[in-house]
Amino acid sequence: MPKAPDTVTLELPAHVRWLPAAQAVVEHGAPTLGLPPKKVMRLVMAVEEIFVHLARTTPGCAVLLRLLRRGSSVQAVFRFQADVEDLWAMNLTAAQELTPTDENMDHMGLLLAAGVSDGFSITREGGTVQLVLSQDKVYPETTPSDRGLTAARGALRMVDDPHPAEVAEACALARGLYPAEKLHPDLSMAGKLVDNAAGGGIVLSVAKDDAGAILGMMFWEQTSERSVGFCGPYVFSQNSGPVAKALTENMLNCLARSRTIGVCSRRATDDLPLEGFEALARIHYCHKNIVCAEQRIWFRLLREDDGAVIWAHAGMVDFLEETYARLSLMRDIRTVENIGIEMPARSVFAAELNQELSEAHLRVLIPGLDVEENIRKHAAHLRSSGYENIFFTLDLALGEQACLGGALMANGFEPALVLPFAGKSDLVVFQHVASRS
Q1: Which residues have C-beta within 8 Å of that of residue 151, sequence separation ≥ 6?
Q2: Sign of the four-CA dihedral 128, 78, 349, 401
Q3: CATH classification of 1-137 is 3.30.565.10, yes or no?
Q4: Where do the structural domains in the chain lie, given as residue ranges?
Q5: pLDDT tens digit string along 380-436?
Q6: Which CATH superfamily is domain 157-275 in?
Q7: Fold match between domain 157-275 and domain 277-437
Q8: Which of 223, 263, 384, 434 is most deeply packed, by most CB within 10 A?
Q9: Which whole-number Å values give the CA distances from 19 to 111, 122, 152, in the listed order?
Q10: Is the peptide bond before 37 cis (omega within 30 degrees of 0)?
């Protein structure tokens, strides 16, 4: 008999008398899915606020609530029919606009739900809205190892399903040997990396010698159906070349059996063997008390590109044409500045923040008429909060996103790199130019 998924589903009307049922599902289900008590209460609070908001703004509408485990997090997923007009209060900058008045109570609840969540996302499919609230599980920090590099004994072998203790050792070695800007954030919490691998979010392999010593590690994740982003190779051997090559070739061999067309580095180390890779971009990174430096992003095409039609604001076209010519990718670029569809008055952005690396990644969840002002507010808020590396990603398959390139460039952003195949089509990443000062 097939194993049931770790998911609880509840369908109920948006009315406050049903709030205890939604609360109970999260209170009792989230601990079963591995969330600790304090995190459970934060998820309960966020679910309460969203449910009460729906009961006030769309009373009686059908709400589908799912609770599930996804790798290292537990998620509460809402699906409902509603206007997205009021969801702007989930923006990172909404607190600057809201005061605790009666007319703002609905918005205050959304602000609180976003604030207590470790992550959230909003998507629309026709008239149906899907809102996802996430809470990350808690993991102990992995202490960097001071062991240094190891002399290999015997032949190399790849292990594609390493034991958690081996992953923990590899994470500790990577933290001890590589600078912070080369490290994926999950390397600081080996248990999180293990859970994400077990949940299928990433694929992880280690290199070992005949004596069982761990000589290296590399991992990657499917960023879309046709694209993979990788980190590493992290090498712990005195003879780094053969280990780095073996880890990279192992990844490419695994992907050869998939539908992946292109691979792109997310945190590539200097050990990456460059044969077959193209330099995708040079990104300027600044860190606290450290001079700004360049980090190179690498790309490799695994099979023939059939070409694609993409959308772009006119101000992005020269950058895109140069990039695609350099990568020998066929793209039919259609310019768009205003697609003329009716949009909400207020836009909503998602923000992924990494304080240690002074890094913020923004993306649009709901385009709105205020998008240019919202971009300006987010950039100013992040800069004043100490974030020096601010990025904004658009999907060029979507005209309503591609046309935002003009608003980004009007507010201090410049196109920095293209990630082929990484979204519905290619993604273009903008960087706030103030990050280079």
Answers
A1: 237, 238, 239
A2: negative
A3: yes
A4: 1-137, 157-275, 277-437
A5: 999 998 889 999 999 999 999 999 999 999 999 999 999 999 999 999 999 998 645
A6: Gcn5-related N-acetyltransferase (GNAT) (3.40.630.30)
A7: yes
A8: 263
A9: 19, 21, 60
A10: no
